[in-house]
């Protein structure tokens, strides 16, 4: 599931300068949407590239007339109406003005906004969800229980967006009932809280890999080969690196060059990944040949515990260097291998931690990621392929 962060920036937040500061902070932090009043759409679009959702009063004819000027990516009904309690809920939802607007053909709003005051509003939010692409729900007296109920009852026909005020609230919303909300609507002026909420969103969307140790069965010097250094636009931590190897089913964990040495400065943006023929794992779970990498491509960063994130390639640096052939055998008896540069700065991960490839010996246990599937043009497939 792809999670999203929405930022509340309508008139309830304050004057335009206050709203502008919040929106600018959101754009810089990487939020997905801002939710504003319809009259603010044009000036919000001038602040930067961002998806804009706009509250509408539900007047379809006004919406049609202003569509060319507003350029909102989505319109939301419910503010100053039944959704936020300004107008009383009808006893029979068939008489609801908000729902009638959502059911309009052509110029109907894309979503509904509902504050959950009690069970009636919870039921109303469920009715809105049946008609809307986006359903924004704000818990008032209760937060978790109504969200749990809606997650359990609402299907995939709508994106459920839960109102939150902190990054920890966002984490709870994303994790509720394991499935979680599709997104959160964050209401805060705190720049750090906006940034932390975006980090929580990114963390929730990341893959976690099962890594295991394989026994080194052979390590030998070979001749020179064209070696690729992957220089990313991100700084990597001491326990991070990439998964690379000659065989897509078995990739070796190679550390980033974060360590200082007496002879070479650290380059924490770099992984010396091996020869041009080898694979590197990508964020979609596929692979790319090292020879194919170029500026702007995405690669997957992984730490020694299997936690992953994405990084943009800034440069792929190819040079002829002397190499080692490293072969290892998994617990299931599968033999895998790769070519790595013969240099003390290239570190793999063994049971003893970071280990220079020049210090590897047969019998050492080296960290790998092993899958039973093959790849074809970087995509995983169920096919019998022999690699040796």
TrEMBL record:
EC category: oxidoreductase
Highest taxon listed in the record's lineage: Archaea
Keyword Oxidoreductase annotated: yes
Domain named 3-dehydroquinate synthase N-terminal: residues: 3-200
Known catalytic reactions: 2-amino-2,3,7-trideoxy-D-lyxo-hept-6-ulosonate + NAD(+) + H2O = 3-dehydroquinate + NH4(+) + NADH + H(+)
Any matching Pfam family: DHQS_2nd
A GO BP annotation: aromatic amino acid family biosynthetic process
Record domain 3-dehydroquinate synthase C-terminal: where: 214-388
Keywords: Amino-acid biosynthesis, Aromatic amino acid biosynthesis, Lyase, NAD, Oxidoreductase
UniProt key word NAD: yes
InterPro entries: DHQS, DHQS/DOIS_N, DHQS_C
Segments crossing the lipid bilayer: none
GO MF: 3-dehydroquinate synthase activity; dehydroquinate synthase activity; NAD binding
EC code: 1.4.1.24
Function summary: Catalyzes the oxidative deamination and cyclization of 2-amino-3,7-dideoxy-D-threo-hept-6-ulosonic acid (ADH) to yield 3-dehydroquinate (DHQ), which is fed into the canonical shikimic pathway of aromatic amino acid biosynthesis.
Record family assignment: Belongs to the archaeal-type DHQ synthase family.
NCBIfam families reported for this sequence: PRK02290.1-1 (NF002623)
Protein name according to UniProt: 3-dehydroquinate synthase
Higher taxonomy: Archaea, Methanobacteriati, Methanobacteriota, Stenosarchaea group, Halobacteria
């Amino acid at each position: 599931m792809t999670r999203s962060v929405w930022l509340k920036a309508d008139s309830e937040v304050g004057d335009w300068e206050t709203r502008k500061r919040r929106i600018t902070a959101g754009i810089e932090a990487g939020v997905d949407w801002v939710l504003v009043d319809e009259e603010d759409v044009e000036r919000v679009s001038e602040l930067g590239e961002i998806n804009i959702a706009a509250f509408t009063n539900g007047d379809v004819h006004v919406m049609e007339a202003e569509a060319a000027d507003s350029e909102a990516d989505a319109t939301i009904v419910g503010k100053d109406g039944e959704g936020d309690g300004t107008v009383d809920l009808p006893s029979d939802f068939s008489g609801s003005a908000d729902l009638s607007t959502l059911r309009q053909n052509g110029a109907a709003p894309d979503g509904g906004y509902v504050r959950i005051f009690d069970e009636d509003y919870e039921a109303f939010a469920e009715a809105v969800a049946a008609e809307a692409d986006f359903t924004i729900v704000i818990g008032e007296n209760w937060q978790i229980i109504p969200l749990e109920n809606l997650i359990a009852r609402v299907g995939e026909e709508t994106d459920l967006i839960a109102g939150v005020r902190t990054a920890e609230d966002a984490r709870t919303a994303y994790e509720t009932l394991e499935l979680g909300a599709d997104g959160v609507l964050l209401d805060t002026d705190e720049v750090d809280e906006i940034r932390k909420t975006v980090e929580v969103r990114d963390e929730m969307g990341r893959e976690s890999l099962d890594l295991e140790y394989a026994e080194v069965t052979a390590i030998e010097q070979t001749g020179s080969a064209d070696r690729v250094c992957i220089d990313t636009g991100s700084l990597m931590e001491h326990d991070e690196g990439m998964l690379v190897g000659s065989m897509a089913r078995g990739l070796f964990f190679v550390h980033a060059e974060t360590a200082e040495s007496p002879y070479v400065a650290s380059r924490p943006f770099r992984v010396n990944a091996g020869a041009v023929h080898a694979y590197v794992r990508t964020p979609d779970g596929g692979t790319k040949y090292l020879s194919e990498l170029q500026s702007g491509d995405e690669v997957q960063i992984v730490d020694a515990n299997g936690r992953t994130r994405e990084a943009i390639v800034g440069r792929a640096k190819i040079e002829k260097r002397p190499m080692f052939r490293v072969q290892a055998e998994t617990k299931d008896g599968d033999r895998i291998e790769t070519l790595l540069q013969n240099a003390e700065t290239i570190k793999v991960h063994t049971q003893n931690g970071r280990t220079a490839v020049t210090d590897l010996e047969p019998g050492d246990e080296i960290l790998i990621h092993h899958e039973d599937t093959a790849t074809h043009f970087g995509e995983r497939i169920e096919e019998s392929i022999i690699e040796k």
